[in-house]
């Protein structure tokens, strides 16, 4: 059995703001709270929101306190900062943050209602909705949280064996060598990026390697003790493996699919149906935080905040590099990546494109996780809350695209545009 570190999983919630506080006093309160929460001086560069804009009347949130789960990853930053900057209170809600230990835990708590919503893997929401790996439960995607910013890491010991890329890996496996790769949840984004990359290099992820599931914060420790030879996970854990001298980045996920969908703000359908105003307020708060994060002058200070034990629990310097687009693959290559983790990108990150959700279902079908083709478009229309998102976006002046579909070319040259999902799922030479 692999060794696993102990992680803090306590809930984090901001101190309650007095309801009768004047706007000027509220700003002072937010400043004091943020300074207290951040490490030495980091919050001094944070720009706080202007006066609160509380919803009233029929638009008032049905649920004033919203419990949001997150996993310790750099891309939890927008839900954390929506709370830390007081953007939740601006729209009449209070975000109660809950640090979770695994994606399976997030899944179970969303289904049970213990969590109202979560920073969560796109593919997990679709799988739960379709009864893949869990009891079928109607689910919703409120908005996209981020694009890009994940990576596939391999152990340094493979470099001496000539395994530095996909071609080397295929040759190594063809020689009869056995390797173990880890992803964070079988239907999630990291599993799909890992599977896609392996298959694009002629390696069947279901047959040619051992494919296991490990929670994100445990990836590095598993590689340290030799349980895994490679893994796909979000930052900062790829950078941390390099920092500790145990692994190198063989490919970033933005090299697999530039501006790919990644984490979403997800919840059960029941939550949206019962609390539409709360859901809309939550989208608005996270949209504003997303804008804030894509102003790069704010990112170093945010890295210091989310580095704390209550959040990512990783050195701020480890987070900051790739957060700012400064990449070092740990094997002699350094570059400035214009396609690093994005949280806003003029709203392109956040719009819940139907084609994005459909893509994950095509991969679930490809790898035998979903046994039959489904009504891909119909399911995506049920899950992705486009109308609610558009209402929220209009309130915070976020542009929306003209079409709910988008077209992308992935690293193997295949184009995905959502037009024929069943044919696309069946078109791959390597599949389950």
Give me a quick take on this structure.
By secondary structure, this protein is α/β, with parallel strands linked by helices. Helix content is 37%, strand content 16%.
Number of helices: 18
CATH architecture of one domain: 3-Layer(aba) Sandwich
CATH topology of one domain: the name is D-Maltodextrin-Binding Protein, domain 2
Alpha-carbon distance between the two ends:
27 Å
Look at the structure and name the CATH superfamily of one domain.
Answer: Periplasmic binding protein-like II
- Give the overall average pLDDT: 90
Structural class from helices and strands? Answer: alpha/beta
Order of strands in the sheet with most strands? 1-3-2-4-11-5
- State Rg: 21 Å
Total beta-strand segments = 15
By CATH reckoning, the class of one domain would read: Alpha Beta
Low-confidence stretches: 1-56
Family: Belongs to the CmpA/NrtA family.
Organism: Aquirhabdus parva
Protein name: Nitrate ABC transporter substrate-binding protein
GO cellular component, one term: endomembrane system
Could you walk me through the main structural features you see in this protein, from its secondary elements to its overall organization?
With 432 residues, this protein is an alpha/beta fold. It has a domain at 150-259: Periplasmic binding protein-like II (D-Maltodextrin-Binding Protein, domain 2, 3-Layer(aba) Sandwich), CATH 3.40.190. Helices cover 37% and strands 16% of the residues. The chain contains 18 helices and 15 strands. It has helices at 23-37, 77-84, 87-90, 103-112, 122-129, 166-174, 189-200, 219-224, 237-243, 253-256, 269-274, 276-293, 299-306, 316-323, 354-366, 376-383, 386-395, 421-426; strands at residues 11-13, 65-70, 94-99, 117-121, 139-144, 150-155, 180-183, 210-213, 230-234, 247-252, 263-268, 326-328, 334-336, 408-409, 415-416. It has a six-stranded mixed sheet, with helices on both faces. The protein has a five-stranded mixed sheet with strand order 8-7-9-6-10, sandwiched between helices. A hairpin with a 5-residue loop joins strand 12 (326-328) and strand 13. Helix 12 (276-293) packs across helix 17 and helix 15 (354-366) packs across helix 16 (376-383). The longest helix is centred in the middle third of the chain and has 18 residues, at 276-293. Residues 1-56 have low confidence and may be disordered.
